[in-house]
Amino acid sequence: MVNTLAVDTFRRMEWPTIRRELEKTHGISLPENFEPRWTDPGSAIYWQELKVRQRQPSYEEGHLTWRLVEVSGGWHPTNPLPANNAWQIAHYLKKGLRLTPPEVKVEPGIQVEAMAEVTPLLEVKAEERQRFVCQRHRRASIGFKTWKAYLRHCEHYEEPVAEEPPEAIKGQRSLFPYYCLLHSKGFATKEEAQRHISQMRRGDRRGSHPRIEELEVKHG
Fold this sequence. Notes:
This protein has helices at about 5-15, 15-25, 85-95, 145-155, 165-175, 190-200, 210-215; strands spanning about 35-40, 45, 45-60, 65-75, 80, 130-135, 140-145, 180, 185. The radius of gyration is 20 Å and the shape is flat. The strands form 4 sheets. Strands 1-2-5 form a 3-stranded antiparallel sheet. A two-stranded antiparallel sheet has the order 3-4. It is an alpha+beta fold. Strand 1 (about 35-40) and strand 2 form a beta hairpin. It is about 30% helix and about 25% strand. The protein has 2 domains: about 5-45 and about 75-120, no CATH class; about 125-215, no CATH class. The chain has 7 helices and 9 strands. Helix 2 (about 15-25) crosses helix 3.
């Protein structure tokens, strides 16, 4: 649940300085009354374009052929990401994210309550078209219609994530230096990732969580 009072304090005390620093240092100019979609103080929802590959017909020398073409699957909200200072916001904007989807006009006084209407990338319906299969059991292969269902299976049986994640999750993972596929969480620093591992390894499942080396995202 959003801490409205804490967010309101951050908006009044920190956001004007961040907005000025974005323009002065990073060349990013935002309207005076514009604000990100805050989820917590220093944390906000961004929008990311989902790229999907589709088969499209192509006529070459009078013959019909098919080719894979990358098209836009629309803009979708991310999970909450850091927005605590100008550098963090500029970092994500330069990666192609937006503070509002392209079709939305910037309006003054964006309300924090609007966050209840936002669906994280993990829930994007596009991933439901992909099927995920586990073949690590003696009985027949187990299929899952959604990524979330497959992750719950992996966590229950303490198995590593072996299937290729949906494009939306790949895009989300590319934003972080460390990302846990099993729990769909990204981390800005090695320390945050290590803290997550320690928390998940408490109790009876000690040692079953992926190691820090497996959470590191290889960019480039």
